[in-house]
C-alpha cells in the first residue's frame, strides 16, 4: 500500500513541487476532455487530484473506473493551479495534485445519499446508514467539536486537582427518580442491577471517601418516554467538590464554561454570569430556564386587575391567582385572525382563553378595553411600556399556568419576530430554588432537587414555620433558554438531614430503608460538599449550532428508543433468558 | 465556615509565620501534658496541628472532644518544630500549626478499621465501607495514578489527531463471544438491549465513517463466571485507525505506553519493544503472554526422546506429541518430597506425571536416568545447559498440555526462586497469532480473534491449502506475564472476507444473517483499518504495583458479581417487571 505522507485538506502552496501520497474517498469526479479531476476527501478536507494520460496512462485508466466514495491511495506531485481554475471556496483551492500512481483500496456502492452538508433526507435513512452520515462535514465537525470540548473540560478540571473516577454502570435500582433500566443478574436469580440515572450517590460517597475533587464524563440512563431532546443514554460532565461553598464552585464553573466556549468556537463569554433567583426567573420570564437574549418580560398586573371590570381577571386576582401580561412590540398591526391563531398554542400550556389589547393610533383597542377605566388603561399603558404598534397579551390563572402560558408565548413571539440572535450566548445561574414543593397527590412535601440538597442557612428556621419558604443551595446554569447544568450543595450535618426527612414525612427508620448505605456513610466524617452536572450532549449541540441532540451523538437512538443501525433492541434466545431466570410476559394488547 | 487557604500536606518551612486555614480529617490525636497534637489529613497529606490552652483556651477545649476521622476546619500559625520533635517520615515534619480557632465540621463514628496502609482486614469489610477504604493513602494514590494515566492516554492520542467518540452502552446482543448482559426494553416488549462486550463493531463503523483515528476509554461488560482478575464491568482504552499498517500502529502504541510509564511512575521503558511470534512464545515460554523477566526457557527434546528408552516419552514423540523440559537452576538439591510436591500443581494444567532429573556431584540422578544411554544423557545435559545443582523437569504430551504444564511450572518456580524482579517491566508484542483454529466439537475452523481479523498477505494462499497455517495480523501486548492489550488489522477487501467466511464454514447468506449491518457498511468504501484495546484496569494494577484488579477500581464488584456497598443486584418491584414485560422464572434448585 502506498504510505500516506499528507492529509488532503492540509496541502498548501508551500508544498508545490513535492511528491505526496494521499489516502481518501472520492467526493466527486469530472471528466473534462479526457482529463479526470477528482475531489479526494479525508478527515482534514478536500484536494483536487488530476489524472491525465500524459502524466501516467495506467493511472488514468484506473481512475476512469473510479466512482464516488471509492477509497484511493494516490502518489503525485503538488502543482499550482492555473489562475483561472483557482477555487476560492476550497482551502486547497490554489493547488492540485498530478497523479502518477493510483491504488484503489476499495470500491463503493452508490450511497443512498450524497456525502455533503445540508442534505434534506429522512433522518431514519441517515441513522440507518450512520457510517455514511458521519462522513458529511457537518457531522464530522460536530464530533470533532465534541471531542475537543471533552478535552477542554478534562484539562481544566485536571489542572485544578480534580480526579477522574469511574463509577459503576451496573448498580442498584433507586427508589426515587425516573424509571430505571434494569439488568437481570444471572448469578443471583431474581435480582437485578439498574443502570445509573446519574452517579449522584457515588459522587457523594467519593466525597465521604476524601477525594475532595471528583469529575467524570459519565454515561447516564433514563427509561423515560422520549422527547425530541432526550436520549435513553446521555452524557453528563459530573463534578463534586468538598470544602467549597456555592459561590466558589459557581465561580470556578464559570471559568470552565468560558474556557470551553473560547477554545472550541472562539466566543468570549463575559464573567461573572448573571445570577437570577428562581422567583425572579419565573416572575419575569415564566421559566426557570429563561432565554435572556431578548426582553418582553412578564409584567405583574394582579393588583391592578383585582378591582377591574374584567370579571375573570378580578376573580382570579381575588382568589390568589395572578394576572400578568407581555408586550409584543410591533404586533399592534396584527389582524384579529393572527392574534386568534395564538390561542391553540396558549391552550397547550393551560390557557383557557387569551385576552389582548392592541395600541393603534394612540388608542387602546380590543374586546376587553371597555371593561377598564381610563385611569386603569393609563396605568396599564405605563406599566406595560405600551406604545403605538404594540400588542399586550394577558394571562390570568394560577401562578404556574400564567408562567407557562406567557413564558411560552414570549418565546414563540420572540422567535417569530426575529428578536433572538443565534450568535449571542446569554448565560445565567438560576439560584435559590425552593427546597421543597407540596405534592397535592401525596399530601406531603417532596424534594425539588433531591433529599440531600442543602437549605440556605438563613432559611433553616422555616422547617418549623413554613417549609415551602425554604430556599435551597441549588443552582441551574441556563443558556439561551436551555438548562445546560445543575446541581446543589449537599446536606452534611445530621441534624439538618433529620429536619429534611421530617419535612418529607419520613421517620429516620424509613429514611434508612430508602437511603441506608448513604446515611451510614454520612456518619463517618462527611465533609461539606456539593456539585454540579453539565448536560454534555446539549452543550455540544449549542456549541455546534445544531437543533437536535442526535446530531451530537455518533450512534444515537430514535425518539422510539431504537438503534436503527444495528437494529436494537431485538429478540434474544430462550437459552439467554433461561440463564437469567426471566421470561417474557407480554401484556395483552388492550392493556398496553 | 473557615475558608481553606492551604492543603495539609503542602505546608513547608517557607510558610513559617503565616496564618493558614486547613480542612481535613483527624488521623490521630495525642495529649501530651495538656497539649493536644492532632495529625490532620486531607487528600494532599498530613500536618501536625497543636492545641495549647495558652494559644487559645476555647479551641483547646473543643479539640479535646475531637476523635479520629472528625472533620475539622482550623485556623492557625505555621511554626517551626523544635529540632528534637522534627518528624523525618512526614513531608511536613519540620513544621506544625498552632491553632487559634477550630470548627468541628462533622463528628465521626469510630470506623471499622484504621485509615492507614497495609491493613490486614477481610476484603468484604473494605468493600462494604469502601468510602472509608478510599481514605487510605494506598487506595487514594491508586485512584490518583489511574486518573493521571487516563489523562496521559488522552493527551497523547489527542495530540495525534485521535477523536474521543462515545459508543452506545445500550446496544445489540452479539451472536458470538462471551455471555451478554441484557436490558429489557419497555418500549419494545419482548425485546432486549445488550451491554457491549467491547465497542468492536462501532469502532469499525467509525472507520467506515471516515473518522480515521478514534479512541475511547470505554466501559465493557461480560457476564462470565469471575476469576480473581475479572470484573463484570471493566474499562479498556479502545483505539482504531485507518490508513496505517501494523508496524506503524505498534510503533505509535509503544510510544504511548512508554509515555504512560514515564509520566506516572517515572520508569523509562526501552524501545522498540521485543517482538516475539506466537509460535516462539508458546515454544519457549509455554504461554502467549510470557513473563520475560527471567529465562528458564522450555527446551524441545522431542527428537531426542523419540528413540529413547523412556517409553512414555518415545510413544508421545512418535504419536506427534512433544517432549520438552525446563531447567530449574539450583533445585538439584531438592528432596524427593519437594519435587513430588510440584505434581498436584502440574496436574492442574493437565500433566499425568512429572519426570525429572537432578544433577548432583557431576552426575545425572533420578528414576528415569537409567532409561537413557550415556550419549543421550550427554546430549540432554548439553541441550538443557545443565550443571551441578540443577533440576530438569520434563513434560511429554500434546503441544498444548506441554506448554501449559511447563509454562506454569516455569512461572511458579521462577517466583519461588525469587528470579522475578518486581521493579522490572518487560514488554513484548506477541505477533503472528494463528488466524483460525480447528474446533473439534464444531468440526470447523473458528476465528482465533474475530472473523474480521486480517490475514498476513503472504499467507492468503493457505486458505485453499491449509487454513491452520494462516497467520493473522493480530498482536497482543504483554507485560510481565500479563496481557495488557491486544488487537488486529481488519479485513477490508470483500474477496478476503469471503475467503474468511468460507473457511469458517459460512455461506455469505449466513454471514449476513450474523453480521448484517457491518457487512453492509463494508460495501460503501471501507478504508484499510485496524486497532487495539488496552486493559486499563490491569495496566493501572501493574503501574500501581497492586495484586488485585479491585484495588484499581473505586467501586468494584466481588468475585460473586456483587456490589457489597450498595447491595446490588437486588430485588425490584413487580410494577417495574410488569412495565418491562418480563417475569422472574426461578429454576428449581436442583437444576441450578
What does this structure look like?
Chains A, B: Belongs to the class-II aminoacyl-tRNA synthetase family. Type 1 subfamily. Chains A, B: It holds the Pfam family tRNA_anti-codon. Chains A, B: Catalyzes the attachment of L-aspartate to tRNA(Asp) in a two-step reaction: L-aspartate is first activated by ATP to form Asp-AMP and then transferred to the acceptor end of tRNA(Asp). Chains A, B: Residues 200-203 are annotated as: Aspartate. Chains A, B: This is Aspartate--tRNA ligase. The structure is a homodimer of 592-residue chains. Chain A is an alpha+beta fold and 592 residues long. Chain A is built from 18 helices and 23 strands. Chain A has an eight-stranded mixed β-sheet with strand order 6-9-10-22-21-20-17-11, sandwiched between helices. A five-stranded mixed β-barrel of chain A has the order 1-2-3-5-4. The first copy, chain A, has a five-stranded antiparallel β-sheet with strand order 12-13-16-14-15. In chain A, a hairpin with a 4-residue loop joins strand 18 and strand 19 (444-447). In chain A, helix 4 runs antiparallel to helix 6, helix 4 (137-159) crosses helix 17 and helix 11 (342-348) packs across helix 13. The radius of gyration of chain A is 30 Å and the shape is globular. At the A-B interface, helix 3, helix 4, strand 6, strand 7 and strand 8 of A face helix 3, helix 4, strand 6, strand 7 and strand 8 of B. Strand 23 of chain A pairs antiparallel with strand 23 of chain B.
Amino acid at each position: 500500500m502506498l504510505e500516506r505522507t499528507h492529509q488532503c485538506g492540509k496541502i498548501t502552496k508551500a508544498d508545490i513541487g513535492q511528491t505526496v501520497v494521499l489516502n481518501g474517498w472520492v467526493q466527486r469526479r469530472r471528466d473534462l476532455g479526457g482529463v479526470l479531476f477528482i475531489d479526494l476527501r479525508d478527515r482534514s478536507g478536500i484536494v483536487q487530484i488530476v489524472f491525465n494520460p500524459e502524466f501516467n496512462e495506467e493511472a488514468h485508466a484506473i481512475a476512469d473506473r473510479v466512482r464516488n466514495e471509492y477509497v484511493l491511495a494516490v502518489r503525485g506531485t503538488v502543482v499550482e493551479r492555473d489562475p483561472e481554475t483557482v477555487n476560492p471556496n476550497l482551502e486547497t483551492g490554489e493547488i492540485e495534485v498530478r497523479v502518477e500512481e493510483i491504488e484503489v483500496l476499495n470500491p463503493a456502492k452508490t450511497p443512498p445519499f450524497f456525502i455533503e452538508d445540508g442534505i434534506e433526507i429522512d433522518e431514519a435513512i441517515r441513522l440507518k446508514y450512520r457510517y455514511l452520515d458521519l462522513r458529511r462535514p457537518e457531522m464530522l465537525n460536530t464530533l470533532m467539536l465534541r471531542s475537543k470540548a471533552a478535552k477542554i473540560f478534562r484539562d481544566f478540571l485536571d489542572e485544578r486537582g480534580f480526579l477522574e473516577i469511574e463509577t459503576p454502570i451496573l448498580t442498584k435500582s433507586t427508589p426515587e427518580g425516573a424509571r430505571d433500566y434494569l439488568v437481570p443478574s444471572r448469578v443471583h436469580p431474581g435480582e437485578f442491577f439498574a443502570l445509573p440515572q446519574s452517579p449522584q450517590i457515588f459522587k457523594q460517597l467519593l466525597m465521604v471517601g476524601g477525594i475532595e475533587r471528583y469529575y467524570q464524563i459519565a454515561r447516564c440512563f433514563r427509561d423515560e418516554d422520549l422527547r425530541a431532546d432526550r436520549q435513553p443514554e446521555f452524557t453528563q460532565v459530573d463534578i463534586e467538590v468538598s470544602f467549597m461553598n456555592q459561590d466558589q464552585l459557581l465561580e470556578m464553573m464559570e471559568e470552565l464554561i468560558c474556557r470551553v466556549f473560547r477554545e472550541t468556537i472562539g466566543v468570549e463569554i463575559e464573567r461573572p454570569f448573571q445570577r437570577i433567583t428562581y422567583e425572579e426567573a419565573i416572575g419575569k420570564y415564566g421559566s426557570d430556564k429563561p432565554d435572556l437574549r431578548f426582553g418582553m418580560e412578564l409584567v405583574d398586573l394582579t393588583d391592578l386587575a383585582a378591582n377591574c371590570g374584567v370579571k375573570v381577571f378580578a376573580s382570579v386576582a381575588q382568589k390568589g391567582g395572578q394576572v400578568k401580561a407581555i408586550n409584543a412590540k410591533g404586533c399592534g398591526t396584527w389582524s384579529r385572525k393572527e392574534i386568534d391563531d395564538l390561542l391553540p398554542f396558549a391552550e397547550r400550556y393551560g390557557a383557557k382563553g387569551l385576552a389582548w389589547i392592541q395600541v393603534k393610533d394612540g388608542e387602546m383597542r380590543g374586546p376587553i378595553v371597555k371593561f377598564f377605566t381610563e385611569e386603569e388603561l393609563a396605568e396599564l399603558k405605563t406599566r406595560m411600556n405600551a406604545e403605538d404598534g404594540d400588542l399586550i397579551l394577558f394571562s390570568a390563572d394560577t401562578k404556574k399556568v400564567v408562567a407557562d402560558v406567557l413564558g411560552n408565548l414570549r418565546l414563540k413571539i420572540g422567535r417569530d419576530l426575529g428578536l433572538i440572535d443565534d450568535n449571542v450566548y446569554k448565560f445565567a445561574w438560576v439560584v435559590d430554588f425552593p427546597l421543597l414543593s407540596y405534592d397535592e397527590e401525596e399530601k406531603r412535601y417532596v424534594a425539588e432537587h433531591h433529599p440531600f440538597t442543602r437549605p440556605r442557612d438563613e432559611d433553616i428556621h422555616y422547617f418549623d414555620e413554613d417549609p415551602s419558604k425554604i430556599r435551597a443551595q441549588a443552582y441551574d446554569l441556563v443558556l439561551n433558554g436551555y438548562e445546560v447544568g445543575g446541581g446543589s450543595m449537599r446536606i452534611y450535618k445530621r441534624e439538618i438531614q433529620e429536619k429534611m426527612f421530617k419535612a418529607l414525612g419520613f421517620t429516620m427508620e424509613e429514611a434508612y430503608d430508602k437511603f441506608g448505605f448513604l446515611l451510614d456513610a454520612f456518619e463517618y466524617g462527611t465533609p461539606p460538599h456539593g456539585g454540579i452536572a453539565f448536560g454534555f450532549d446539549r452543550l455540544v449541540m449549542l456549541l455546534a449550532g445544531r437543533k437536535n441532540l442526535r446530531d451530537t451523538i455518533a450512534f444515537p437512538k430514535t425518539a422510539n428508543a431504537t438503534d436503527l443501525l444495528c437494529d436494537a433492541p431485538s429478540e434474544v434466545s430462550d437459552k439467554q433468558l433461561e440463564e437469567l431466570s426471566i421470561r417474557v410476559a407480554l401484556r395483552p394488547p388492550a392493556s398496553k
